[in-house]
Specification:
The protein is α+β, with helices and mostly antiparallel strands and 426 residues long. 43% of the residues lie in helices and 19% in strands.
């Protein structure tokens, strides 16, 4: 017989959620190590994060390409040898670069950790930057760029950020064939020498923890030289906000139109970030958001629509993104403006606030599910928010931000009359 007792909502006590314990060690060259004990014996993870990115470039694209060519090997070791060494030890090694950081990640068996860590540091310290490797990667990026420029969503985003930040700024300039062709191996070496430094480095380790492991990590990570400054320089003045604008980039063979509608906001450490992060979730950053319910579910104008608070270390923006039939552009824009106006003028109902609170807290709980997940979350807290203490600030803002505060933030940051519209496609 089925249980017919009435449903009773169970309120979670999210205030008990906390960041698990970790160790922190600072080495003589300025490198900061964060380490956690694994719950899976025999496995370990190490990620090196360099605070560099575009802000420290003297030649455009040198940050991206200098990171990409690390996997091509050192003077005595070529890419095929790198791949064979990693495969032989059953490990995974990757290098990625974004606007503010370079990430070098290693996952492996604990018994091979010593040899692999030394190998990783050798690659990061002494990349060969051979011309033939640069030419091959440049050719790949040319092909990749050609494909990306056929995608309306990619084109609308790059043109939107160029308008927001300025076409010649670190966050605003776009990859072009001309910039790719202008890069020389000397540019990559110069960038590497200035930016792969111990005092730009944070390391995140999860595995077996004992004194010998810390000593081994210090021995390898302390090999990175001390750079000229404690951290890469940030801009003295924020970039100017563009005047209200509406631009369209027609694209052949495209039947849809991609829109980006938004404005410049603030950097990630801004005091309004966490509250606006929750506000953005209400508007369009999860499946039950207002934009999804109204424009996708109720009106059927688009398959996907979302909003994003795209904040970096030195600057940031907010935008709404959607791909539409061109005939639905104006109706969708009208509904978007209506949703923004409602957030600016009316209080969010308590039931909706609680639903978003539970969604965000559940997401944080997922990020704390085991030490390997947790150390990746710790990496985000340290590098993007400045400190592990940002976890408590995030939790507090999600739990306690009132509807009145959310309305105040919407009035301050989400004015549709100040937003620019960039479209690309049909």
């Amino acid at each position: 017989m089925l249980n017919t007792l009435p449903y009773k909502r169970v309120e979670e006590d999210w205030s008990r959620m906390h960041l698990p314990a970790f160790e922190s060690h600072k080495f003589p060259n300025g490198c900061q190590l964060y380490a956690m004990q694994t719950n899976k014996p025999g496995l370990c993870f190490l990620e090196l994060v360099f605070s560099n990115g575009r802000w420290t470039e003297t030649t455009k694209l040198s940050a991206r390409l200098s990171a990409q060519l690390i996997m091509e090997g050192t003077d005595g070791v070529k890419a095929d040898v790198v791949a064979d060494f990693i495969d032989f030890h059953g490990a995974h090694l990757s290098v990625q670069a974004d606007l503010d950081f370079t990430f070098i990640s290693l996952s492996c068996l604990q018994k091979h950790f010593g040899a692999l860590t030394e190998f990783l540091c050798n690659l990061a310290l002494s990349p060969a930057y051979r011309k033939e490797d640069l030419d091959r990667n440049r050719s790949f990026l040319h092909s990749q760029l050609k494909h990306q420029l056929s995608e309306p969503d990619y084109v609308s985003y790059r043109e939107f950020t160029s308008l927001i930040y300025g076409r010649d700024t670190a966050y605003g300039y776009n990859t072009t064939p001309e910039l790719l062709d202008a890069l020389r191996v000397e540019d990559l070496r110069s960038y590497h020498d200035a930016n792969y430094c111990g005092n730009y480095l944070s390391a995140f380790y999860c595995g077996e923890m004992d004194e010998r492991t810390v000593e081994r990590l210090e021995q390898q990570l302390n090999r990175f030289p001390v750079g000229g400054a404690a951290e890469p320089a940030s801009p003295k003045e924020p970039s100017p906000s563009p005047a209200a604008a509406r631009t369209h980039h027609p694209m052949k063979h495209s039947r849809q139109i991609s829109l980006k509608f938004g404005l410049r906001t603030f950097q990630r450490k801004h005091p309004d970030f966490f509250g606006t992060y929750m506000l953005n979730t209400v508007l369009g950053d999860y499946f039950g958001s207002r934009l999804m319910k109204n424009i996708r579910e109720d009106k059927g104008l688009t398959y996907d629509i979302h909003s994003a608070l795209d904040c970096q270390i030195h600057d940031g923006c907010f935008y709404i993104s959607a791909e539409l039939n061109p005939r639905q552009l104006e109706p969708a824009l009208k509904l978007i403006r209506t949703e923004l106006r409602l957030l600016r003028e009316e209080l969010i109902p308590e039931e909706e606030r609680i639903m978003v609170r539970n969604y965000l807290c559940g997401n944080m709980l997922r990020l704390l599910d085991g030490p390997f997940q947790t150390v990746s979350f710790l990496k985000t807290l340290v590098n993007e928010y400045g400190s592990p203490a940002a976890f408590d600030q995030l939790k507090t803002e999600v739990l306690d931000t009132s509807p009145e505060r959310l309305r105040e933030l919407a009035a301050k940051w989400l004015d549709p009359e100040k937003m620019i519209l960039v479209t690309a496609g049909a």
